[in-house]
Specification:
single chain; alpha/beta; five-stranded parallel β-sheet; 24 helices; globular
């Protein structure tokens, strides 16, 4: 079993970390990120294991480590070293051991409240300083104290340290809700999941100042890495589900729709219903659900007509119930949805089918399903789909992909692709970056891998800075058609030279949901018009190759740019001279100003 899949193989990770690191570093296409760690306890193994989990997600971290137990001073009184490192992510590894001014039985209730207010003010000062670095901040919340001085009274009395920690967690949650790019790593949940006796080791604390037992470090690092990979578009996006003994009990071809086990009538049926409810919740977050099953399609569809089936046919974007190999079905799904195979999680109770998909689709996540009653726990704790925010576009993503399937069916009835595009009645809105859409634009920039010409990423602070900069041209685009609204799907940033004569396209991204719809032409037309309006004479651009952006390798060639040179690493440099009156290149949609 892969050591970085839940349940984590702690012994393998801790004992073989050097070999694992070498193997993970040998992978191609790693995304480089700067990660600063400040802590209130020893962080040596935390940093080592966090590196492994980030590498397993395709992120190669460069670390900056603060001084031991000086997290506050490292940030609030930064000598300039941390700011000069310019982290992409700041991880604050503090625990309940770092709460100060704790109340006790000798305090009055008013005195206990004053101590809480003072501690909240101290942490707010610290978090405000963290945010000034302009990077993503990940802050542990606080687990429960290992010892309760006042027993159960700790949970309700203002002088109880248990209640103090819980109220600090509520304060932290409120701060995270009010401040963008600030995220909570929920170690209170992790400690409860593992049990305090497994989480905290008095001997490790007194001897080495580790605020947790070493066996808990992989769970902690997996949680932090889940947040980081979510920030940089490494989440899974889609589930491909088997049916028999996966989404329901029994074999529908033998037992019939009425004979499969589902619902509240028996324990096994409840377990399968729980999985369906969980998947329906994932769909509400924007995860795309699909069926990949060896079955007769008409019979398989009947299973979702049962009134006790939480999932219905309309919940699925692709429905492949046939007798083809499941890895081939999955590859076709990926192509139809315009998703990379690495975006998928494959769920199947059959070990042989799991082995087939692992062998032929190595980038697909294939969890080791065992008993049905454990399916939901395994998926929930694996962190495949962990969001860092939920936008309207996120919640509508599943519906958007189902609409894409409808578009694919409509396309099949046309012999001329241009006529098909015109039949979609597309409406494109394009405007400059603005505050109401800043979060979604930043998310799009940092999560887009295929249509990403320079592979650049921007922090929220950087996106906000270019939004206000007179030396930048910014564009975002949304696209709707007769099947539905795709939301914000493209962003472009161009830097204007000091003299105003030229512009360099620093970033251009577009969601895979709208590939091959000529939206790129509409965005380019708007950029060309803006350059002409500003008196910009030349546009320069570059294509920097990555493991995933080959589909846009020749984009600038198709837009009429001249290739200046191609470097040994595959980077292509382009130039385009701006006409006095640029001619539009997109004639298949209506374009509106936003």
């Amino acid at each position: 079993m892969y050591p970085f899949d839940y349940p984590y193989d702690c012994d393998a990770i801790l004992q073989k970390k050097r070999r694992l690191r070498r193997e993970l570093l040998a992978r191609e296409g790693l995304l480089d990120k700067k990660v600063a760690i400040v802590g209130g306890s020893t962080v040596g193994e935390v940093k080592n294991v966090l590196e492994l989990f980030l590498l397993s997600h395709g992120i190669r971290p460069q670390f900056w480590e603060g001084e031991y137990a000086r997290y506050y001073e490292d940030v609030v009184f930064d000598t300039g070293e941390l700011a000069a490192f310019a982290p992409d992510v700041l991880y604050v590894h503090t625990t309940v051991q770092n709460l100060s001014g704790l109340p006790g039985p000798a305090d009055t209730p008013a005195g206990a409240e004053a101590k809480l207010a003072a501690e909240q003010a101290r942490w707010k000062t610290f978090w405000d300083a963290c945010r000034k670095l302009g990077c993503a901040v990940i802050q542990n919340n606080f687990e429960m104290p290992d010892v309760r001085l006042m027993g159960n009274l700790e949970a309700s009395d203002a002088r109880g340290r248990v209640r103090f920690a819980r109220r600090m967690n509520e304060f932290l949650a409120g701060y995270a809700c009010e401040n963008a790019n600030f995220y909570v790593n929920d170690i209170a949940y992790l400690a409860a999941e593992l049990g305090l006796d497994r989480w905290f080791s008095p001997s490790m604390w007194y001897a080495y100042k580790y605020a947790m037992d070493l066996s808990a470090v992989p769970a902690l690092c997996a949680s932090v890495a889940n947040i980081v990979k979510s920030l940089y578009g490494k989440n899974k996006k889609s589930v491909a589900c088997d049916l028999d003994n996966t989404l329901w009990g029994g074999v529908i071809g033998d037992d019939g729709p009425e004979g499969i086990r589902l619902g509240e009538e028996d324990p096994a049926g409840r377990a399968y219903s729980a999985l369906q409810e969980y998947l329906k919740g994932l769909a509400a977050m924007g995860v795309v659900l699909n069926v990949d099953s060896k079955n007769e399609e008409s019979l398989a569809r009947e299973g979702f007509e049962r009134p006790d089936s939480a999932l219905k046919m309309q919940d699925f974007a692709c429905f492949c119930a046939n007798w083809e190999p499941k890895d081939q079905n999955l590859a076709r799904m990926a192509k139809q949805l315009n998703l990379l195979p690495e975006s998928f999680v494959f769920l199947d109770d059959n070990p042989a089918e799991r082995a087939l998909v692992r062998a032929n689709c190595p980038d697909v996540a294939v969890p080791e399903l065992d008993a049905p009653e454990n399916y939901v726990r395994l998926l929930a704790r694996s962190g495949y789909f962990e969001p860092t925010a939920l936008s309207d576009d996120d919640r509508r993503r599943g519906e958007m992909y189902r609409q894409n399937a409808q578009r694919a069916q409509a396309e099949a009835s046309f012999t001329d692709y241009g006529d098909y595009l015109k039949s979609l009645s597309m409406v494109c809105g394009i405007g400059a970056f603005d505050a109401p859409h800043l979060e979604r634009i930043t998310q799009l920039i940092n999560k887009t891998n295929q249509f990403n010409l320079t592979t650049r990423r921007y922090s929220p602070a950087e996106v906000e800075a270019v939004m206000h900069s007179a030396q930048h041209v910014t564009l975002y685009a949304r696209l709707a058609d007769r099947f539905g609204d795709n939301g914000i799907v493209s962003a472009l940033i161009g830097a204007v030279s000091p003299g105003g004569e030229s512009l360099e396209i620093e970033l251009w991204v577009m969601s895979c949901r709208v590939f091959k719809r000529r939206l790129e032409n509409a965005v380019f037309d708007r950029l060309a018009a803006e350059c002409a309006r500003r008196g910009i004479k030349t546009v320069t651009a570059r294509y920097i190759p990555s493991a995933k952006n080959m589909p846009v390798k020749t984009l600038y060639d198709t837009l009429g740019f001249a290739l200046v040179r191609e470097e040994e690493n595959g980077t292509r440099l382009y130039r385009w001279d701006v006409p006095e009156t640029p001619a539009p290149t997109c004639g298949v949609m209506r374009v509106e100003a936003l």
